[in-house]
Amino acid sequence: MRKRSGRMLASKWVKTAALLSNREVAMHIPATRVLSPGNLRGMLAAYGMVVIKPIRGAGGLGVIKVTKHGGRYSAKYMSQTRTFRSFSLLYRHLGRIRRRRAYLIQKGIHLATIGGRPIDYRVKFVKKAGGWRFRSMVGRLARPGLFVTNLCRGGSRMSAAQGIRRSLSPGQVDVKKQEMRHLTQVATSILETRFPGIGQLGYDYGIDQKGHIWILEVNTRPQ
Ligand SMILES: Nc1ncnc2c1ncn2[C@@H]1O[C@H](COP(=O)(O)OP(=O)(O)O)[C@@H](O)[C@H]1O
Ligand SMILES: [Mg+2]
Q1: Cβ atoms within 10 A of the Cβ of 130, count?
Q2: Cβ within 8 Å of residue 126, ≥6 positions away
Q3: What number does the ligand 1 atom closest to the CA of 49 have?
Q4: Is 150 near ligand 1, meaning CB less than 6 Å away?
Q5: What's the Cα-to-Cα distance from 23 to each of 40, 104, 191, 214, rounded to whole Å?
Q6: Does pLDDT of 1 surpass 50?
Q7: Which domains does the chain have, with CATH numbers?
Q8: pTM here?
Q9: 63 CB less than 6 Å from ligand 1?
Q10: Which runs of consecutive H residues, i.e. helices, occur in 57-172?
């Protein structure tokens, strides 16, 4: 049973679906679909920029940013950007990176940046005898040239306060930290009801250039 729920929770799709059941939390989840040519075309038409990622993935591996501008498509993977003049050429290229893994598509969030580098936040929430406790909240700044902030891909760690101050404004620090803590509590109660037995969660929060908070993913076995 333990094993089964552990495997189920590796799925970003299953966790996203659970969180979408709550109205308040759903406002902070980027639109998400399973990757298919039709869904990708539709989401690119709607958002211009999307991120596609393995349903069972970690460490920023296999995460690709796809953009459409005019009739051209581009795909950024690691530090390489390739441009294509047709959707089918784009899709063939994505297939080479995906290697048959199941993927999802997410609306691309224009994350707030510092010196042009996107930043997001990891909030660790851990269950102790007395209930859930916050263990840490840190900012992660993408390595120059990358859009993923993962520390194992060269992202650098900084305090959440410093990250918010420098990417948004000093006046937003307390408000945004409090909003992330509140969302963490609400989302955790939903996840715990659906998946009893979870004890450690790592939330990846993006804050866009307008200050809106987005849940990019929830890790059930955070590093
Ligand atoms: N929807 C998105 N919009 C913009 N950037 C994103 C989006 N989703 C993920 N990213 C970037 O990619 C990184 C890795 O994605 P994530 O969903 O956390 O997968 P992983 O399990 O590989 O860490 C994030 O930390 C963030 O920097
Ligand atoms: Mg992550």
Answers
A1: 6
A2: 132, 133, 135, 199, 200, 201
A3: 3
A4: yes
A5: 25, 21, 14, 14
A6: no
A7: 2-29+110-219 (3.30.470.20), 32-107 (no CATH)
A8: 0.95
A9: yes
A10: 87-98, 160-167
> Which atom of ligand 1 is nearest the CA belonging to 149?
27
> For the segment 79-134, what is each residue's pLDDT rounded down to a tens digit?
999 999 999 999 999 999 999 999 999 999 999 999 999 999 999 999 999 899 99
Ligand 1 neighbourhood includes 223 CB (under 6 angstroms) = no
User: Ligand 1 pocket test: which of 138, 148, 201, 218 has the largest number of ligand atoms within 8 Å of its C-beta?
Assistant: 148
> Which residue from 140, 148, 122 is spatially nearest to 200, judged by alpha carbons?
122
Burial 8-46 (b: 16+ CB within 10 A, else e): ebeebeebbebbeeeeebeebbbebbebeeebbeebbee
Ligand 1 touching residue 57 (CB < 6 A): yes
Take residue 155 and report the two structure tokens written for it: 């992202």
